[in-house]
Amino acid sequence: MSNSGGSLCFGDEGLKLVRDVKRSRDSGIFHAYNDAGVRNVKLEMKYLLDGITSLLERRAVLARAAEQGSAGRGGDGRGGSDYEGDGDAVVDAESSQAALELSQGCGMATHMHLNALRRNRRLLLVYHRARMDSLRDMAWELGGGGAGVGAVQTDARSNAVAANSDDDEDVDMDSDRHTTTTSNNNNSHPSGLPHNVIRAMSPNELSFLNSYHSLLEDYRGTMLDIDLAAPLVPPSDLFIDIRVLRDLGEIVTESGSILKLMAGDQLYVKRTDVEKFITLGYAVQI
Amino acid sequence: MADSFWDIDHVLAEQQKIPCFVALDVPGYGFLDGNSSENLCKNTRIELPFWMVTPLIAAEQVELEYPHCFARRALDDVATSAVSVNLHGLCPFFFLFGVKFVNLIEDANLGNVLADAFSQRIAEIMQYSQSGRSYSKFISTLDDTEKQRILQQDSEVGQRTLLWRQDPNSASTSTSAH
Predict the structure, then answer these.
(1) Most buried residue among A145, A146, A147, B137 by CB atoms closer than 10 A?
(2) Touching check for B66 and chain A: CB below 8 Å?
(3) What radius of gyration, in Å, describes the C-alpha atoms of chain B?
């Protein structure tokens, strides 16, 4: 219903952005930054701002004309307005009335422009904030196993996949991370976010994420004995059943044995050995 | 208002259009009327989104009509049998928008109808979510607030209850961990 009514209106472009972010939140997929959309909204805002300036000027001119008309002088032609009388008193009064009304109309148009400007600002802010929030959440959720913590190394050598898992966010809540660290996968970002998320970000968002990540690392570094990234729900089992979704090759587990993970395998393994893969969506818990 | 500024649902709810009459000729807004003239004429009936209407109402520059989801006919339906009305079809943000609209116009009757409908429907939603039946058709008639906030929480609670019935101890620990 919201897009009924046919007529386009200011703010529609920005609304698309917010709709997009809602869809992305509902589906759990981090959508690509809509650069063109944001640019359009900015252009619209610039147009509105110019409109406000010219409307205000026009209004001032009209108001002056109306004032002069009602003062009975008329005919001055100041400001080049069409609404000046020709010296005839009646016409004068009428035209000044018209000028007054039109100036009020301009006032209303200015008001509407201003509302649209405010609306656009809000849409842009909401769009960016919502994206930022989900990035921040992901940084907490996936950024896990702080590189600063001297942890167990499960070596994810592996040509591990030109990372493109669609379900980056729907990592089940109980896929926990303790102090396990995989030495950073060549393909993923230091923050531990999957590649497709990184690609969906704007440059500004990327730099935000980088700074936020290092901030997070510093904060974690102050409390080495507590893993802040650990999930709040305790794991129910030490060992879990997993199904591997991608060829990951062989990994060396905590205990030193070698685990071979090929697509389609179902294994009963120690949770901490495979957590990273579950987080990244390369394996699922059954 | 301050809290809802960042809320995506509020942003979308405020996009709902409300029919209204402009009190003045407005230069440059002819496009709202659908014709190509430059000015929007006085007393034209146009549809403006809620966010545009609110400040204009305060300045008494427009006069409102009831949007079709709160028109007499729709409200009669809702008052008669709140449970069987397809609210999502009327307006996806029926209640959220309703609260905003009621505050705008101060219509006690509309407020009462909405409140009654909401409480009647909650009972029905609870029943559906607890029974675990397939209810996709029912869901499609729910307004956004009902779908997101209530139904999801309901079914979560339902699952926990189920767990608790099976094994009171384990369920209670997992609840407290949350």
Answers:
(1) A145
(2) no
(3) 21
Question: Tokens in use for A2?
Answer: 């919201």
Q: Is B21 on the interface with A (CB under 8 A)?
A: no
Which is it for strands A266-270 and A239-244: parallel, antiparallel or unpaired? Answer: antiparallel
What is the maximal distance between C-alpha atoms in chain A? 104
- Percent of chain B past pLDDT 70, that is, above it, reads 87
What is the distance between the alpha carbons of residues A93 and A80, in angstroms, rounded to a whole number? 18
Contacts of B47 in chain A (CB under 8 A): 5, 7
Judge: B8–A22 Cβ closer than 8 Å, yes or no: yes
Task: Quote the number of domains for chain A.
Answer: 2
Tens digit of pLDDT for each residue in A32-57? Answer: 898 999 999 999 999 999 999 999 99
| Partner residue facing B12 (CB), from A5, A22, A234 | A22
A-B contacts (CB, under 8 Å): 100
Separation in Å, CA of B168 to nearest CA in chain A: 16
Could you give all domains of chain B from N- to C-terminal order, each with its CATH number? 17-65 (no CATH), 67-178 (1.20.58.2050)
Q: Which domain holds residue A111?
A: 12-133
Amino acid at B60: E
Whether A25 and B92 lie within 8 Å, measured CB to CB: no
- Which of A68, A101, A133 terminates a domain? The answer is A133
| H/E stretch holding A37 | helix A35-70
Measured over the CA atoms of residue A223, residue A228, residue A232 and residue A235, the dihedral's sign is: negative
What are residue A285's DSSP bridge partners?
Answer: A242
Which residues, other chains included, contact A182 with Cβ-Cβ below 8 Å and sequence gap of 6+? A145, A153, A154, A155, A156, A276
Separation CA A123–CA B137 (nearest Å): 32
pLDDT, residue A168, reads 38
Q: Strand order of the sheet with strand B17-22?
A: B45-49, B17-22, B62-64
Q: Whole-angstrom Cα distance, residue A92 to residue A83?
A: 9
Same domain, A121 and A158: no
Nearest CA-CA partner of A212 in A242, A192, A195: A192
Chain B partners within 8 Å of A106 (Cβ): 27
A217-233 pLDDT per residue, tens: 888 888 877 777 666 66
Tokens 């393909």 label which residue? A187
